[in-house]
Design a protein that fits this description.
The chain has 423 residues and is of the alpha+beta class. Helix content is 34%, strand content 16%. It folds into 2 domains: 2-29 and 274-346 and 389-421, Aspartate Aminotransferase, domain 1; 36-271, Type I PLP-dependent aspartate aminotransferase-like (Major domain) (Aspartate Aminotransferase, domain 2, 3-Layer(aba) Sandwich), CATH 3.40.640. The protein has 12 helices and 18 strands. Residues 85-87, 111-112, 114-115, 157, 183, 185-186, 207, 209, 221 line the site of pyridoxal-5'-phosphate.
Length: 423
């Protein structure tokens, strides 16, 4: 391989899978997320705990309170409560909505299992609203069609950092008087019409597990809302039903323990300050890559709605297989031979998971589906054809803020030579 004046190496036009040199190295995609500032914050938190004769519990600490304030202000809302994960955040929001067992919650067909399990553990029945074709996100029209007299909430998930059409969704929710939960696990800092994802819904759940845009060190979650009364219930559920009132602190309702610790919050606060830079790097990288593949017939970046600014949790690439003699899976194999971290699909359609297919949430009881009024059945067979097609038509490339534009240029070049060879 020899560098060219453009910085892009000139190389054999043969893809690696056909005997050429791989254009990328696996090490180029490594993520350097934790640095000196996080190390210092963690050590400071340990020193603080030692000098104050404490462990890292949030009570009497400083970091969790501060992280909650910083987070709410970052999203542009008034209040937040830190939790142990994104899953816990969604569960705590649902619990605070007082859903009656057997009611329906509108859910995305493409999401992480942690983005759906809380619905089932809240004894609510998921009704899946289809995506737009070419998107992994639910469409407003499909949400509208999924509403029934038993719908009690809409759970909206911004997959891959790509914003859902939130204004349209909020309008539908308002008409039908339904609360909207935003799952922002994959979309920290994503914008729709200039407004941040997580600031549209009645309450929003973030995940700060280690793979997300910013992390509280490995696991972590946050709920943000503009409704202090709702937050009080969410916070209490995440703290074994403990309410903090003017009359003292009392465990008044049933709840779980989903609290964040001081150590996690100390790291999360540093990361939150770094988030704008992380987002800029991801966006610059993605836009650069988009320019580099502009001439391709086989590949294009996934469609996002007008006015949406993605935070690119991964690169969602449409493969126009009509321009290739090979399948999407073969194309991804060729990309893997170039050391590009890619995958032929993202997760599976959630209603095809065996635990949903077999109705196996609470052993063999069939709960929550069996809680529906008699005569109401939930058949999820090909419930969301657009979502199934969208998964079939797209591949993923892992993107992170440490990946340089130069590397992304070589990713594009590798894809170009795969396209030529597999025409
Ligand atoms: C869309 C979505 N929702 C929820 C979750 C669950 O978050 P956590 O892993 O922090 O529980 C994830 C996690 O990856 C996710 O991607």
């Amino acid at each position: 391989m020899h560098p060219s004046p453009t910085g892009i190496p000139t190389t054999s036009s043969k893809p690696a899978i056909l005997g050429g040199d791989p254009l990328c190295q696996a090490s180029e995609f490594q993520r350097d997320l934790i640095g000196d500032q996080e190390e210092k914050a963690a050590l400071d938190a340990i020193r603080w705990a030692r000098t104050h004769h404490k462990a890292f519990d949030r009570y009497g600490g400083i970091e969790v309170d501060a992280y909650e304030k910083d987070f709410a202000s970052y999203v542009g809302l008034s209040v937040a409560t830190a939790t142990s994960s994104g899953t816990a955040s969604i569960h705590a929001i649902l619990a605070a909505l007082d859903l009656e067992p057997g009611c329906e919650v509108i859910c995305p067909p493409i999401t992480d299992p942690g983005g759906i399990s809380p619905v089932l553990f809240s004894l609510a029945i998921p009704v899946f609203a289809d995506t737009r074709s070419d998107s992994f996100n639910m469409s407003p029209t499909a949400i509208l069609q999924a509403i029934t007299p038993r719908t009690r909430a809409i759970l909206v998930t911004h997959i891959a950092g790509e914003p859902c059409e939130m204004e349209e969704i909020m309008e539908i929710a308002k008409t039908h008087n339904l609360p909207v939960i935003e799952d922002v696990a994959q979309a920290h800092g994503a914008l729709y019409h200039g407004k941040m994802c997580g600031s549209f819904g009645h309450a929003s759940a973030f995940s700060m597990m280690g793979g997300k845009h910013h992390t509280s060190g490995g696991q972590g979650g946050m709920v943000v809302t503009d409704n202090p009364a709702l937050l009080e219930k969410i916070k209490a559920f995440a703290d074994r039903g403990k309410f903090w009132t003017s009359r003292g602190v009392r465990n008044q309702t049933a709840g779980l323990n989903y609290r964040m610790t001081e150590l996690e919050a100390a790291i999360g606060r540093v990361q939150l300050r770094r988030l704008p830079d992380i987002l800029k790097r991801r966006r610059d990288g993605a836009l650069h890559f988009q320019k580099m593949i502009q001439g391709s017939q086989l590949f294009s970046l996934g469609w996002i709605p007008e006015g949406a600014i993605s935070s690119y949790w991964f690169l969602r690439i449409k493969v126009h297989t009509q321009f290739s003699s090979r399948s999407k899976e073969e194309i991804v194999k060729a990309m893997a031979a170039e050391n590009i971290p890619s995958a032929p699909t993202y997760t599976s359609i959630i209603y095809n998971q065996p635990w949903i297919q077999d109705r196996a949430i609470f052993a063999k009881s069939g709960i929550p589906w069996s809680l529906a009024p008699q005569g109401i059945e939930y058949d999820y067979t090909h419930a969301c054809p657009n979502a199934e097609q969208a998964l079939a038509d797209h591949i993923l490339i892992s993107l992170n803020e440490s990946v340089s534009k130069e590397t992304l240029s070589r990713v594009a070049l590798a894809m170009q030579r795969i396209e030529s060879a597999y025409r």
